[in-house]
Specification:
The chain has 102 residues and is an alpha+beta fold. Helix content is 29%, strand content 47%. It has two helices and four strands. Strands 1-2-4-3 form a four-stranded antiparallel β-sheet. It is elongated and about 55 Å long.
Length: 102
């Protein structure tokens, strides 16, 4: 029973970690910071979440915005699944875009 609950917990952590895409990490009213995950070998510009981040900025501003700066933001580590003898930890990289509404 204990193994089953541990496995269920690991699966929930995995699903929650995979479900998080672009998000408004900081809201300053007339702008903010949007972050999204990316894979280092693919780069931040072709991440499937970049389009989602740009849409978040447009929606937040009700139209046009200016990108002030962007760069790698603080990532996180998450449990990715069970491997023989333990759990695999995946380090997620995130990209941040600071923007201001026009």
């Amino acid at each position: 029973m204990k193994n089953r609950s541990s496995l269920a917990c690991a699966v929930l952590v995995l699903l929650a970690g995979c479900a998080e895409g672009a998000k408004l990490a900081q809201d300053s009213g007339d702008g903010g910071i949007v972050t999204y995950p990316f894979k280092g070998e693919q780069g931040h510009l072709i991440s499937s979440f970049r389009k989602e981040a740009l849409t978040l900025m447009r929606d937040h501003c009700g139209g046009s915005y200016a990108i002030l700066r962007e760069g790698e933001a603080k990532g996180r580590a998450r449990v990715a699944g069970m491997v023989e003898g333990g759990q695999e930890i995946v380090r997620e990289r995130r990209w941040g875009i600071e923007f201001r509404c026009k």
